[in-house]
Every structure is written in C-alpha cells, then in structure tokens.
Structure prediction request, 171 residues.
Amino acid sequence: MFLSVRELEVKSVRFEQTLAPGVLSFELEDVKQAGPLTAAGTVELVSSSEEIDVAGNLKVEMTGVCDRCLEPISLPVECEFDLAYYPVDDAGDKSEAEIKSSETEVAYYHGNGLELEDVLREQVLLSIPMQKLCREDCLGICPHCGQNRNLATCACRVEAVDDRWSALKNL
Ligand SMILES: [Zn+2]
Ligand SMILES: [Zn+2]
Prediction:
C-alpha cells in the first residue's frame, strides 16, 4: 500500500492490513514470519511541512533460533508506533521541518510518498530482541562435544584458560 503525499493532501488514510508470511521480506537468516501480520492505524499529512505521520499497532508471530542452543523459538511481536516521516530530496538534504515532539520517532521518505509495508517491516525488525534465548538461563551447546546442555549434561571438563599463556599465543 503506497502512501502518496498527493492522496494524503486530500484526506488522511486509515489502514487495516493482514499480510501473510512472505509478503514482507525480512532478509534475516534465522528469523522468519510464522503467521499473518496484522496491522491497523492512521496516516496523516501535515501539509505545511509535508510530514507524513504514521500511527498504529501491529502484531505478528515470528520464529527464530536460540542464540545459545540453536533450538527453534517463537518470537511474538506486538508493538505500537507513532512515526513522523519527513521529505528528503535525492541529494539527501533534509527538509527544514522542525522536530516538534520528542515522543515521536523521526524518519525520512524520498519522492512522493512511502510504502506502508516498509514501515511495518522496519517496526517488526526493531521489535525483535537483540539477544534471542529459549529461556533466560539457557545452558547452550557444549563447545567440545556439541551436546545441548539443556537436555543432558556431557562429560566434558570445562578447561580453565590461563591468561598468561593466551597472552603469549597472541604475540
Ligand atoms: Zn537455548
Ligand atoms: Zn561436552
């Protein structure tokens, strides 16, 4: 859904979208969309500055893998957003529009509008936690034998690394 400045000049837009997995390309290695993404909100144009305001909420079930044990995990995403997009010309100069509200996140658009799908994709990406764990105290995989230590204890000894020797090795 393209949000065009020309159309927004006439009236604001209310959107309600359901996007099946595959519609948005997240281009992430391990994180995938597991179910439909639902989003709803409003888009308004501030005519004086050509600022496009996008406010709403979205919900989607994502899946990923645990950073430590590599088991599949579910990453439910639910967020509200209130974003202000300012026009920027092709030379990259930002408009003179002033940023009025510190609570509103600010971004920029090129040309005569922006894709709602791009807005939604970015919000999902921002909502995915940096550290993805199946559980807070995940024990991970043994670096020696590859055993998932949440499931069983392996017989490997944990080697204490002597710092003096590792410093020599780096020479
Ligand atoms: Zn884990
Ligand atoms: Zn082991």
In short: Residues 2-137 form one domain. The pocket of zinc ion (ligand 1) is lined by residues 66, 68-69, 71, 133-134, 138 (CB under 6 Å). Confidence is low (pLDDT under 50) at residues 95-99.
